[in-house]
Design brief:
Layout: H1 3-20, E1 26-30, E2 33-36, H2 39-56, H3 67-79, H4 86-110, H5 114-139, H6 156-175, H7 180-196, H8 200-217, H9 219-236, H10 244-252, H11 263-277, H12 288-291, H13 313-346, H14 350-369, H15 381-397
Antiparallel strand pairs: 1-2
Helix pairs in contact: 1-2, 1-5, 2-4, 3-4, 3-13, 4-15, 5-6, 5-7, 5-15, 6-7, 6-8, 6-14, 8-9, 8-14, 11-13, 13-14, 13-15, 14-15
Amino acid sequence: MTAGLLQRLVRGGLLLVLILAPTQYSIEVGDKTYISIVDPVIWIVFALWGLGILVSKDWRTSVTPPLYVVLLIVWASISCVQATDRMTAFKEVFQLIEYFVVAYLLFRHDARTERGLQRVARTVLIMGCLIVYYGLIQYNLRTVESFDIGATFGNRNVYGGYLSLMLPLIYGLALYQPGRGLRAFLLTTVAIGLGVTMSGATFLAVSIALGLLSIMRGPRAALLYAVALILACTLMLPRLTRENAEVLMESISLYPDDVAVAGRYTEWQAAGYMMIENPWVGVGAGNYQKNIGQYYGVLPDPTGAAEPDIQNLYLVLGSSMGLPGLLIFVAILLCGIQRATIVAARSHDLYTKALATGLLGAVLAFAINALWAPLLVRGIGIPLVVILCLIDVLRARLPNN
């Protein structure tokens, strides 16, 4: 194969990855072992990318993962020594490598040029809009329960995690969009996304992020957003066909039935005990569920089928990989927020400022939403890494970096 052909295959493969990534559809290949439809694609593209570098011998175009990513992988690997289920721990580390190393290297390389950057950002935006409208279709199907409104995802919590990445990104681009027609479409998409989410955590996280982005845009945008949010919460949400206001409140309520504390919050306390008793390397990456039951103590251990994906991501990471693993991941998110803020503040190019603003809101909303859902899962991991990658690309392009 020639270097040019390999480059075209890699570009086409990465577009396919962006299209296939936002979904939880997967195939069970073993006992509780699943492969999503994007997993083999991304490894094939990675092999083609490596082969292309060997053929062209252009080592200058290769990139390396950030130090904090290396530290995360190393600490996750160290935590495996504590795991009661080593195979699950190894699978967790392998998934982290796929997300934070393989996907990062591929998209950082592809987005290094202006054309590549716009191609990646445009594809992410288009997929985000399509999945929002898929959720709208499900919202209007009476055969679909409110909890199951997840578009291409398994439930409202994971779908909400994806929306927490996409809606601020779309809104940030809309804030600086000169064309009225496109701006109206983007703002309408954001409003629909907030209307179809059944996760109170997502609605709260996205609302906070959009408020911050509006303040960054200026007093007029902040005032208009505040008025729109108040009207939406007081007049529109209570009148929607799914009784959104009640569903959103119930989803994060401390006492959803006015009697017992919600199971997610008792699990938070149990996870906190597990983290305190295993502060350095935790109980092993991927071993959270296998160990959480023994840390309830006198707390009411939930019985029956519990709603999936309601754990606190930070407590999951802290109890499974120890406090160092948790702090490294938090540092990744904070670094992304800081770099996006710098780009948004210093850039004079309207598109770059808009993109950086949206990316900032995406990471912020994800960080808030992760308090109520374990969002490092299939379908969200790669979109998160692509967003962090785009931030790094924009930051590297600033003059006097």
